[in-house]
Write a structure and sequence with these properties.
270 residues; alpha/beta; Rossmann fold; Hypothetical Protein, Haloacid Dehalogenase-like Hydrolase, Chain: A, domain 2; 2 domains; 8-stranded mixed β-sheet; 6-stranded mixed β-sheet; 10 helices; globular; EC 3.1.3.-; Cof-type HAD-IIB family hydrolase; Cof; hydrolase
Length: 270
Amino acid sequence: MSKYLIVSDIDGTLTANHHDVTVNTAQALENAVAAGAAFYVATGRMHALAEVVAKQFQPDASIIASNGAVYDFSGERVHHTLGEDALTAVEEVSADLNLNALYFSDDTVYFTGTLPPAIEAAARKFAPKSVEIKVVGVPSIKELLTHAAVITNGIIFGPNDTKALDAGKTALEARDVLHVSASEHTNLELIPKHVDKANAVRELQEKTGIAPDHTIAFGDGLNDLGMLQAAGVSVAMGNAVPEVKRVARYVTDTNVDDGVAHFLTEFFEK
């Protein structure tokens, strides 16, 4: 088989419950890797959480984490950070709109002030019991900025306040100091400027020498749009949001119906 780069989102794509991958999907990926494909998971999760999911079903998986701000290559880990200007803008906009932001390094969650219980629960739902993630509360923006060198990305949750999220997105984009995306309509993904999953995929294409037409990408959410556009073989899950299905070249079955496995099996058989 010619060399392929396979990149897949995790939640709503590889997994049905945020943690587990079906036997069929694991086998399809194992077959592709055994045949010479390079496989990456690409997620908004911090590296530690992405790694624990990927390694349980594909030991040879590499990681694109933090929506492209962090990725593995040739035994090294590449980092892009939000920076002080972006952190300050997020804190100011969040305070104005009564929203709460969480910030991530490879293995730690940071926040300022006190988190509402619903936001803390939303932040923890992606962490399996086998992984201990440090959660650090700091009293002020000034203290938050002392961690700027390790904070790669963040998220604002607003499950019951989409109007505030829309206003937050507009205000942050006007500041022009970071990239704002979303994995669902109930959050804002906070990413370093000029960075997203697509940026990581393109850098990996250049480093591996694998062309876009030999890059297969799977996704379901809004933060997968750029990654799909960077891949010659772009695949939306059956459960993907309409915007993703419009961009993708193919649509496969849903994440709970082994969509990734079905597509890979049929693609490589052909």
